Amino acid sequence: MSARKDKGRLPPFVPIDKEMMDCPAWRKASCGARVLYVHLKRRWNFKQRNNGRIYLSGRDAEEEIGCGRDSIERWYRELQHFGFIVMTDPGGLGVEGKGKAPHFRLTEAEWPGGRNGNTWMLPTKDYLKWDGTPFQDDRGAVSRARKRKQNPGVQMHPISDAPGGVQMHPISRVTTMIAPSDAVRVLPSDHRMSLVTADPDGDEIGPPTTTIAVNSRLPWHAPTVVEVPIEILSTELRLMALGLPFEHATRAR
């Protein structure tokens, strides 16, 4: 092509509809979801009429955007929630074991439809029909983080007065309720036991005292925590404190 015909011709670019950019759904979408939409729109070709067969695998999206797989999957769900894309083929694992990425349709562009798929359909623009419901995701990394928060496992407790300086000892998250106002926290055998009592306002009344006795029942708004060695607990509670199954110990009896 001559230089005269190339004059004023733009290089390859990704067009974005201004009406879509001004809609509330686009403004509520996260920045990551918008970037993913641009990379997905890059695959759209008007001449090939491939809307409905556009795909971008998670691996390719990771390389192009530079983020993790969980973020890519969350942004795909977000784009579907706001109505920017519609999944036409969920993809999956093929017969020969070769994976197939999901296919999507951009709602801002025309798409082939009809009974035989040869009818040129008008854009649906589902993002203009967004009802204002915010996007809430409870899958992927969000779900795993919530599970870790509910069951964080064995925690480490520093002991400053231990021989040789500061040492770290595991503390179990398992607690045994003795009474509505008392609880037992499992500590290693070489740790000193202390009893701390607090008033209803949460202020400490006095310095900790070394004891193993359980205080008399107090009102529920003034809890008492007693730290005891692990040796005085039963076998089941020891195994629970260490996070080990105790079914075999029960059967052995």
Overview in brief:
The chain is α+β, with helices and mostly antiparallel strands and 253 residues long. It has helices spanning 3-6, 18-22, 24-28, 31-41, 58-65, 69-82, 141-150, 235-241, 247-252; strands at 85-89, 92-93, 99-100, 103-106, 111-113, 119-121, 155-159, 167-171, 175-179, 182-187, 195-197, 224-229. It has two domains: 8-147, Orthogonal Bundle (Arc Repressor Mutant, subunit A); 154-252, no CATH class.
Task: Please write out the topology.
Blueprint lengths: L2 H4 L11 H5 L1 H5 L2 H11 L16 H8 L3 H14 L2 E5 L2 E2 L5 E2 L2 E4 L4 E3 L5 E3 L19 H10 L4 E5 L7 E5 L3 E5 L2 E6 L7 E3 L26 E6 L5 H7 L5 H6 L1
Parallel strand pairs: 10-12
Antiparallel strand pairs: 1-4, 2-3, 5-6, 7-8, 9-10, 11-12
Helix pairs in contact: 4-6
What distinguishing features does this structure have?
253 residues, alpha+beta, Arc Repressor Mutant, subunit A, four-stranded mixed beta sheet, two-stranded antiparallel ribbon
Shape: elongated
Main β-sheet, spatial strand arrangement: 9-10-12-11
| Portion in beta strands | 15-25%
Number of distinct helices? 9
Q: Main β-sheet, in a few words?
A: 4 strands, mixed
The pLDDT mean sits at 75
Task: Report the C-alpha radius of gyration, rounded.
Answer: 31 Å
Taken in chain order, the helices and strands follow as HHHHHHEEEEEEHEEEEEEHH
Any guess at the CATH architecture of the largest domain? Orthogonal Bundle
In the residues, how many domains can be counted? 2
First-residue to last-residue Cα separation: 90 Å
The CATH class designation of the largest domain is: Mainly Alpha
Helix content: 25-40%
